């Protein structure tokens, strides 16, 4: 198949942009790309798919996502993190069934595909949600999923005993760590290698030193990557201080710092933390909307970039973002650092697109396969319809993608050479059925959790 007549932002090593470009897909691979006329001449008679007026980018990669939480969109607005967790989200998630987890996974994946995300890192999937269902949803949909199953053995947040997890979410070493190993043996590499199983460790304070060390040892010996929330709020830094550490010195002490680790949020770091982080090759998942909405603070992205830290981008969960649309996340990532630094050049559009593509691929250890449009790489790409009034005119296509486009502008999504979205419509999933199931199950979860009186409109409803 030849995809023709597009503006192609390759994000290749030279950062080429090809006007009137074409991509030849052979099986699941990009076999060729270049000017449309040249490829037509080279491959006469090849079936074509016309992308006139579209901007093509590498498939977007979300390096932080909670698939279960999409079922809880809008249930915990305008709360800071600890209240958000202890009073709402943990209570709701502690009442999930495996069927709820499967419905939430399908809702998340459908939304991600429709808004251009072709690969995601699930951060902390609890055992009660049904990990098998998550894998089945990834397999059937055609998306790529790096799936972190929770690792924990302490049921509280940071150092305050009052910040306790809901009993329905509490897991021990056998269920969490050993359960992850079982799922890794069962699912890692399945679905034509679109599924990778990760350790999804809880934040420091939620995992004992011994369990962290056992997990990091297994990570090294078996090649299982790790993702973990870290230094998200002031309470996280205070916990580390209470045991005579900074966030990065603690992570280093239990073996978490590694090129196979993605640390999420990383808001409350000092200069030495950033130096340690950069030297270790550990990756960061930046989630500006979540950090802003939960009033957690703003990650020091410009300082991390100067230090050489690889930074990806994530939407986090729907209750602290309200969308899984990584294109919207890109816009905030491009402007929030300008506002606090008083420097309009702080994080340019090009850096943001790199975060959402090739940097994300590096964070997931998949940079040789995805993250840029190059011959021999997987055919994962997204076509944004730039013919619409709100996207015209554009002079720099990267600017148009980062500062103007949203998920609603996604026209075509291809993963592993297969078209999963065409004309803005899902091809591998029934959107209507997913929405109805999610609507039913979300209400049941709220009722089961006893939160119907709190999860509702604040203004009078007639």
CATH class of the largest domain: Alpha Beta
Strand content: 15-25%
Structural class: alpha/beta
Indicate the radius of gyration in whole angstroms: 21 Å
Report the major sheet.
Answer: 9 strands, mixed
Helix fraction by DSSP (H/I, runs of at least 4)? 25-40%
Indicate the CATH topology of the largest domain.
TIM Barrel
Q: Secondary-structure blueprint of this entry?
A:
Layout: E1 2-9, E2 17-26, E3 29-35, H1 36-42, E4 48-50, E5 54-58, E6 60-65, H2 81-93, H3 98-114, E7 117-125, H4 131-141, E8 144-151, E9 156-157, E10 160-164, H5 173-187, H6 190-193, E11 195-201, H7 209-222, E12 226-230, H8 234-242, H9 247-253, E13 261-265, H10 271-280, E14 283-286, H11 288-293, H12 301-307, E15 311-313, H13 326-341, H14 349-356, H15 358-363, E16 381-385, H16 397-404, E17 410-415, E18 418-422, E19 425-426, H17 431-448
Parallel strand pairs: 1-4, 1-5, 6-7, 7-8, 8-11, 11-12, 12-13, 13-14, 14-15
Antiparallel strand pairs: 1-2, 2-3, 5-16, 9-10, 16-17, 17-18, 18-19
Helix pairs in contact: 3-4, 3-17, 13-14, 13-16, 14-16
């Amino acid at each position: 198949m030849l995809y023709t007549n597009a503006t192609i932002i390759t994000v290749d090593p030279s950062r080429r942009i090809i006007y009137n470009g074409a991509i030849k897909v052979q099986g699941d691979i990009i076999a060729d790309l270049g000017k449309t006329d040249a490829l037509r001449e080279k491959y006469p008679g090849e079936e074509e798919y016309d992308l006139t007026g579209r901007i093509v980018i590498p498939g977007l990669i979300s390096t932080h996502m909670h698939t279960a939480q999409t079922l809880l969109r809008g249930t915990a607005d305008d709360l800071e993190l600890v209240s958000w967790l202890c009073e709402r989200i943990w209570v709701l998630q502690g009442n999930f069934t495996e069927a709820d987890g499967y419905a939430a996974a399908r809702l998340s994946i459908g939304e991600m595909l429709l808004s251009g995300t072709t690969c995601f890192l699930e951060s902390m999937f609890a055992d009660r949600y049904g990990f098998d269902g998550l894998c089945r949803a990834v397999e059937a949909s055609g998306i790529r999923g790096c799936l972190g199953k929770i690792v924990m053995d302490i049921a509280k947040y940071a150092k305050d005993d009052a910040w306790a997890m809901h009993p329905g979410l509490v897991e021990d070493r056998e269920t969490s760590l050993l359960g992850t190993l079982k799922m890794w043996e069962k699912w890692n590499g399945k679905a034509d290698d679109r599924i990778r199983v990760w350790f999804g460790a809880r934040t420091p304070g939620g995992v004992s030193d011994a369990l962290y060390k056992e997990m990091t040892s297994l990570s090294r010996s078996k090649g299982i990557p790790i993702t973990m929330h870290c230094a998200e709020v002031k309470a996280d830094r205070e916990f580390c201080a209470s045991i005579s550490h900074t966030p990065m010195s603690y992570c280093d002490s239990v073996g978490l710092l590694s090129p196979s680790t993605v640390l999420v949020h990383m808001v409350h770091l000092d200069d030495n933390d950033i130096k340690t982080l950069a030297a270790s090759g550990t990756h960061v998942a930046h989630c500006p909307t979540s950090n802003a909405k939960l009033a957690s603070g703003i990650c020091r992205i410009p300082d991390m970039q100067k230090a050489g830290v690889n930074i990806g981008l994530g939407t986090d969960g729907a209750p602290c973002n309200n969308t899984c649309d990584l294109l919207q996340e890109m816009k905030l990532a491009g402007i929030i650092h300008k506002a606090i630094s008083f420097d309009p050049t702080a994080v340019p559009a090009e850096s943001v697109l790199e975060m959402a593509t090739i940097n994300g691929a590096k964070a997931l250890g998949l940079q040789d396969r995805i993250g840029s449009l190059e011959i021999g790489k997987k055919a994962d790409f997204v076509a944004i319809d730039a013919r619409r009034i709100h996207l015209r005119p554009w002079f720099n296509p990267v600017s148009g993608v980062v500062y103007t486009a949203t998920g609603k502008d996604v026209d075509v999504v291809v993963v592993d050479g297969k078209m999963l979205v065409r004309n803005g419509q899902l091809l591998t999933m029934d959107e209507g059925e997913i929405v109805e199931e999610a609507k039913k199950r979300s209400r049941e979860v709220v009722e089961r959790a006893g939160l119907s009186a709190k999860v509702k409109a604040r203004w009078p409803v007639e």
